[in-house]
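Priority: low. Protein: Riboflavin synthase. Input follows.
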Amino acid sequence: MFTGIIEEVGTIKDIQKGYQEIAMMIEAPEILQDVSTGDSISVNGVCLTVTTYSGRDFQVDVMPETIKATSLRILEKGSKVNLERSMPANGRFGGHFVSGHVDGVGTIKRKKSIANAMYYYIEVPDELNKLMMLKGSVAIDGTSLTVFGIEDSILTISLIPHTVSHTILGEKGQGDIVNIECDMLAKYVSNMLPNQIPTNKG
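Result:
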């Protein structure tokens, strides 16, 4: 379980892509102070398991289903990634409940600056759009954010300056894809009440 509060922006030090699998070595010295083999770390919102580590980097493996469902497939050596360790039971809870199980990807259609905020307009698939709620929570590339607008298939989020400068979202723009995890409660309700939640049209 995660909170969506990004702890560090890491760098892909090495990446090996097979036909249906990926192995990544990620440089991230700040979050490795108390890491152990088998720990869970969110990488761009995807829960991955630490297989090996040193004082400055750690390795994770990505399985076929994760490759198909997320944007991890487009990462290359040198790519920056959002990182968060799993939430400790006695830790401060600052975001919202994030499982690290990405529901799909969206595409940034445009972004614009308004006062001290950066607004992003993200196109999402219909099956994710129906799970969005105005002023509800959503995780974008693992970052806990609030839904500020929903119109047809376009989701609007707003980033404060700290989030722009301390996550990879600040460097993303039109045409880039992002991992999306919908609110956990909305998914449970949708699953229990199939075909009863209409697609959100605004």
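The chain has four helices and twelve strands. The domain at 104-192 is CATH 2.40.30.20 (Elongation Factor Tu (Ef-tu); domain 3).
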